[in-house]
Specification:
alpha/beta; 3-stranded parallel sheet; 2 helices
Amino acid sequence: MKVLILCMNGITTTMFCRKMEKYAKYQGFDDVFMASAVRMDNLDLRDTDVIFWLHRLRSIMKRPKKWSKI
């Protein structure tokens, strides 16, 4: 399956796609994940099976801050 993941910049989405591909291969699937910025006008959607729009992916991927004693 070919999955296109869209966000505003495409930078954090690329990292997310890499993790999703690793997990799909671990589960035995042969899926392809592609990342792209929304504003790119040269997107070829003809071969895409699924399109996801991720809003505020950066806040989802942030890890909690570790508190330290001062």
